[in-house]
Amino acid sequence: MHPPILLDGPMGTELLARGVATPLPGWSAHALETDPQTVASIHRDYATAGADVHTTNTFRTQPRHFPDSWRALIHTAVAMVRHGISTFEGRIAGSIAPLEDCYLPARSPTDPGPEHREVARALAEEGVDLMLVETFSHVGEAIVAATEAIETGVPTWVSFTAGPDADLLGLDEIRAGAERVVALGAEAVLINCIPTRRVAEFLTAISDLGVPFGGYGNAGDAQDEVGFTASPIACDDYVAAARDWVAVGAGILGSCCGTGVAHVRALRTAFPP
User: Fold this and answer.
1) DSSP letter at 132?
2) Which region, left, alpha or beta, applies to residue 112 given φ > 0 means left and ψ of -120 to 50 means alpha?
3) For burial by CB atoms within 10 Å, which of 26, 50, 102, 194 has the most?
4) 266 Cβ partners below 8 Å, 6+ apart?
5) Which helix (H) or strand (E) holds 224?
6) Which residues on adjacent β-strands are paired with residue 189?
7) Which domains, and CATH codes, for the chain?
């Protein structure tokens, strides 16, 4: 059995911990303008901790949030990953996120295709190694975003979320969405941005689709206008949960909002390459 592929952890939580503001509407993307070197240093710290896949800080670099600078921000985001991991091996994953609030699926636009197409093509032009279509609680928009990512020819992973209380999507809905994106050509399916203790049951629902699968869970408390505070979940407890994910067959592990570099390091220690 191959060791799990290890994703890096959240950007926004680490920026907040280092005193970098992440205001609405761009959240962590603002740091690409105000403090790109700290973005690079966070990528470096995750690489040092042992991450195999390094996610671009492009969760909010969409035309609707940065109409005049979104393309330049994507360029900066990819450049900061390359700068941060320059002495390490690893793949760069271009993050493609919902166009509106990932916890408010009712706000998903009726025609999200053109915007997702622009972001996907920009990430492909920047030479990312894979697309990470992540944190979608609206299955229809996830399918559209996955379609645009796959059509670039870049390998694509798709991750669904049921939200901070794991109640935005049911197991059957996530299963159906995962089946659709796999049929389109997604090379892996994941679950993210739900409570760590709930990840295993959602992974079980997507465990037999014939592609690699995995998860990255939340810790800490979601706060309006701020994001997730530092994690109250000890690294040992997070690793214990991840062992349950591996037990159901997960081959991709990571950590999401409220975790940090220490959690990635603990995962790498528990699951060495």
Assistant:
1) E
2) alpha
3) 194
4) 235, 236, 238, 239
5) none
6) 158, 213
7) 5-270 (3.20.20.330)
Tokens of 218: 């939340």
Of 130, 128, 129, 139, nearest to 171 by C-alpha is 139
pTM comes to: 0.95
Q: Where are the alpha helices (DSSP H) in 21-112?
A: 31-34, 36-49, 70-84
For the beta carbon of residue 262, count every other beta carbon within 10 angstroms.
Answer: 16
Per-residue tens of pLDDT for the chain, all 273 residues? 689 999 999 999 999 999 999 998 899 999 999 999 999 999 999 999 999 999 999 999 999 999 999 999 999 999 999 999 999 999 999 999 999 999 999 999 999 999 999 999 999 999 999 999 999 999 999 999 999 999 999 999 999 999 988 999 999 999 999 999 999 999 999 999 999 999 999 999 999 999 999 999 998 654 433 344 554 578 999 999 999 999 999 999 999 998 999 999 999 999 999
Q: Residue 199 phi/psi, 5° resolution?
A: -60, -40
